[in-house]
Structure formats: C-alpha cells, structure tokens
Known about the structure:
Blueprint: E1 2-13, E2 16-28, E3 33-37, H1 44-51, E4 60-69, E5 72-73, H2 79-83, E6 90-93, H3 97-100, H4 107-119, H5 123-136, H6 142-145, H7 155-166, E7 173-177, H8 185-202, E8 205-209, H9 213-219, E9 222-227, E10 230-236, H10 237-242, H11 247-254, H12 295-299, E11 305-307, E12 310-312, H13 317-320, H14 324-338, E13 353-366, E14 374-387, E15 391-395, H15 402-409, E16 417-422, E17 425-426, H16 432-439, E18 442-445, H17 459-470, H18 475-488, H19 505-517, E19 523-527, H20 535-552, E20 555-559, H21 563-569, E21 572-577, E22 580-586, H22 587-592, H23 597-604, H24 642-646, E23 652-655, E24 658-660
Parallel strand pairs: 3-8, 3-9, 6-7, 7-8, 15-20, 15-21, 18-19, 19-20
Antiparallel strand pairs: 1-2, 1-4, 4-5, 9-10, 10-12, 11-12, 13-14, 13-16, 16-17, 21-22, 22-24, 23-24
Amino acid sequence: MLEIIDLDIDFKTKDGLLSAISNLNLHIKAGETVCLVGESGSGKTITSKAIMRLIEYENGVISKGNIFFQGKELTSLDQKMLQTIRGKKIATIFQEPLSAFDPVFTIGYQITEMIRKHLKYTKKEAWNQGIELLRKVGISEPEQRMKQFPNEFSGGMLQRAMIAMAISCEPDLLIADEPTTALDVTIQQQIIELLKSLKEELNMALLLITHDLGVAADLADRIIVMYAGEVVEDASVSQLFQTPHHPYTRGLLKSIPKVEGQTKNKLYSIEGSIPPLNNPPNGCLFHPRCPFATEKCKKIKPQLTSVNNRLTACFYAEELIKREDWEDDHRTERKRQYIGGLAETKDHSQSEILIDIQKLSLHYSFGKGIIKKGKVKAVDNVSFAIKKGETFGLVGESGSGKSSLGRAILQLERITRGDVLFAGRSLGKLRNKELGAYRKEMQMIFQDPYSSINARMKIGEIIGEPLSWHLKLSNEQLKAHVYELLEKVGLNPKWYSRYPHEFSGGQRQRIGIARAIALNPSFILADEAVSALDVSIQAQIINLLQALQKEMGLTYLFIGHDLGVVQHISDRIGVMYLGKLVEIAPSHQLFKKPLHPYTRGLIDSIPNTKTNKKMKMEGEVPSPVNLPSGCRFKTRCPFATERCSLKEPELIEIERDRFVSCHFPLLTN
C-alpha cells in the first residue's frame, strides 16, 4: 500500500539546508500496522508529515527519493491532486487534539466538513453520518455532542472525536501520531482497543508513531526504530522484544520501568542525547552513546542490512546477540528485580512523620459574580502521612485531584477544611511571613520543563534565584553554589551563562531539579516530573532523583499517571479517584495484589500487561460537580451493588500498612 524509497528530507534555514531524514526506506502492506519508535528528534513525525507532503508548509523539502501510495507517486503530485488523497485515502490523528480542532466551530461542523468535501453528502446526510461516527468511537449522547465545542470535551473524548473525523471517509491508510501520549492509562487502553476494532472493521493500514513501547507491542505487527533521521532496526514485534539486534533498540527496551518486582534499583539509561542535525557525528550516528562502539563505528556508517530475517544497521549485530550480557541483561533483568537481587529497599515503618495531611478538603466555587451555582470538590476529606526519607507515589486519572492535593500541601491553594502538619507544625495556621521560612523546606519540580523556566533568564540566574531570595550571599558565593548545583544534577558548570532554549527537554528538567534542591529542602513535590520525557531521558531523571534522595535525605511526593514509573520510584502509593483516596499500600504489594476495583482497573489498563483476565473500566469519569451518591466509583465498577449506592465506604486499614475504601475489597484476586 505504501512504499518509501531512499527518501531524504531537508529543511530550509538561514544557514542553508539542514538534513532531517536520510536514506529512509519503509513499506506498509494493506491491513498492516507498522509502528515508528524512537526518541524525540529521531524523525518519526517528519516522516509521517512527508507522506502527506505537509512538511512543505513548514519549510521542508523532499530532496531525494520516492513515496508510492497504491502505486501512485506522491512526491510529483501537485497540491490540487494531493487534496483528493488527504483525508479521503490517507488520514491523520494528531498528537494534541485540542490544538487540532478549531475552537470557534462545533465538533459536528468540523467532522461533517470532511464528509461533505470528499463524499458529496448533503448537510443533513453528513450530520447523520457524523452522529454515527461519534457513536462508533464510543462517545455517548452523540446527537448533543455534535453541537458542542472542543473546550466542552475531555482529553479522551477529543481524541475519540479526532479519530471519528479521521475515519469519516474510511481511509485506506491511517497515520496516528502519538495518539495516546497525553492520556491516562485507562483512556489510553480504550483508544488502543478502538484503533484495533476500527482497523479490523475498515481493513485499514495503520502507521503508528509513539515513544511508548508498551503501546507499540499492543498494536503493531512490525516495529521500525528510528534514530537521528535514520532507520536502525525493522523487525516484527516478537522479534524485537525477544532479541533486539541494535544497541539503541536494546537501550530503549532496558530503560522501561517494569511494573513488577522490587523498587529502588537503578534504571538502565542511554547516556547523552540525539546529536544535533547541524553537527552529526562521523560514522554510526549512535556511536557516541553506544557501549559497544569500536573505531570502525566512529569512521564508517553501517547500512541497513538483513540479519536473522529482520533489518538492522549495526556492524556487530550477530556478534552482540550472542554475548552473555546482551541476553542476560535484557531477558533476566526482570527476574532479578523480582527476587530482589538488584533492589535496594528501605524500611520506613519506624521513620518519623514529616508531612501529615489531616482531613484535607479543597473545594472550588463556580458561578457568575457573587452568585455561586455550586462547588467542585477537587479534594475531599483526604488523610495520610509521608515519612522522612520516603517516596510517596500518587496515581489516578486526570481530574482525580492529584495536582490539587499537591498544591494544597505546599499551601499554594487556600484549604477549605483540614490541615497540613510539617514536622508537627500546622502550616494552615501560619501567617505569610511565618510560612516563608517553611518555603525553603518545601520545593516543587514541575511537569513541563519548557514553560516552568523563564526563557529570558540565563540558567545560572534561574537556579540562583531562590538562593538570592532566601540567603545573603555575595556574587562569588552565589556563583560557586550554582556551579556546585549544576555539577550535582549532571550539567556542565560552564553552561552557567546559557539560555534555556539551548538545552534539550531532559537538560531543562535537570535545571528545574537544580533549582528545587538549591535551598537544601526536606520535601519535594514532583508533579508529573518525567511524563513529558522520552523513555531513555526519563530513566536518567529517575536515577538522578533517587541519587539525590539518598545523598540529601529528601522526602518526595511523586505524582504521575505512568504506573510503571510510579511503582519503580515509590515506597508507598496512594490511589485517588474523584478527590478521594481509595487505596494506600506499599508499592510492590499494590501491583501484586490490588484491593480496590479502581486500582485493579488501572493496572489492567497498562499496555502489554500479562494477566489472565483483565478488568475493563467502561465509561468516563463522572462530573466532580454532580458526584454519584455512595461510592464514587460505582458507575464504572463491575462489582457494584445496591449498598454501594447507599453508603460511601471509608478508608480503613484491613491489612498491615494497607488501606482501602471499598465495601467489597478484592482480597482473593
């Protein structure tokens, strides 16, 4: 169906052409799912945009090679001919659905626009077809939803609406660019199942772009690994996961936190980052980061060749896969983690409590002017404690109240009821000036390393700002301290005078961490601190956080939606749903034997998890404005009874260190 031959893609810059893709060869058969994986900057999205010739709107140019779609050569077509293919024959699901929809038009108008253009339907016919499409992708009450605007949809619903728009003309090839990256694990699983069913029903070919290898394993027939604009491995899913043949593929697989076994062991990480397009290394592009590189790799570029019925670009693939450490590290690492061979565990049972959250509630009133129509119970009567030196993980879907709870703990939000004790002292009763002294002890690492750093300040000024605010230091002392912090987080002190735009996402997150630890705090809130990063960079940051915790005696509240990451770094985990804690347990116990149906549903939603019988959570999270009576999870729980509707369960300890809020906990699952 699709064949790309020897494709080169360049971008026009003020300094001339910049090579982004080199000698790309790729094919997709009818009905096949091919997945492109690799770190940010590897060329995945550029490849997908080149197929539809969208790079021409971004100063891109196809300088060499051919793209054949159903026998038709696309690179020579004019824009008018391309318009007959885009949307009708080839459709795209974009990564960020909110930015892909026009906010001033209804969902219905935008879905029917494509139908009217390509299928020549009347307005009424197109509208009815749009309703059926929304129903097909699992959106309830489609007649009403068609009349709504994009801002009235949740993230998961918007992604479904975009899929509806993409399949409206029943395309032969669907390109899905990171369709699940910004979604919770439950919505992610629903989108995966939806794409599978649509592919079967419409007999579409699917080109999936992702950096989540779990999603790739769940959806793909074949996986193509890209690095710095080139394909380095092309193999079936079973081939790739059983025995990767390229060191880069092996590194990506090893960097993934496993949802099993003990925690606190150091994650494998690929050191360094993808080379800049304007200064690529000689020879193999991966050799500066490859632990197996030789002098030959530094001088000669390997070609993509057939090895053991798959394609790989490595001189030593056949030799490397026979090495004991190659297979041993990849296949038995999980087993060693599970029996605790590499794990470093700490007993916090006797540790002193640092943060004590007591019946904390955070409610937001809404309405116009002085007339308040109602309240959103973002956090509702939550109590738990975090011990010194501990990492307490917090998981749950978007809207569960995780970030609101974190901000309330740091006193960044005015608490409605309850209190937060820091080392036994009530923070809620402190005045602003008194609270300032405690600000030094409590710091935050933000989710987005791009928006959380002032682009107009040098990184030395960014890191030094809390020091100059709280401490009386001379310029020389301040600079020396910042140099020390840069070195501590793995950055070169010589970069003191550089600006944020000169750094990668992982490096910017290190800058944010340096700023957070500048005042030697006791407690750090990490709010989705690694969710925006590639798996290899994510592993580096997790290892850094663990090393700093050990060195400085830090206590973490780690908020995340990637359950593998949270399980790896946390000692204990709290599970939130609609403003309530529904379960608290030691990390390894929670994943081995969840007690609450919601926890079980989250774990079973992780892509590629091997469980005999998975529990599926149907439907959307209820509105926090109109909460269900009794148990808040009852509307999605397969075990709900009449009792669940009548009485809200309390969070009680039913085993040592295990708390659950459920009338019928899963004690025998």
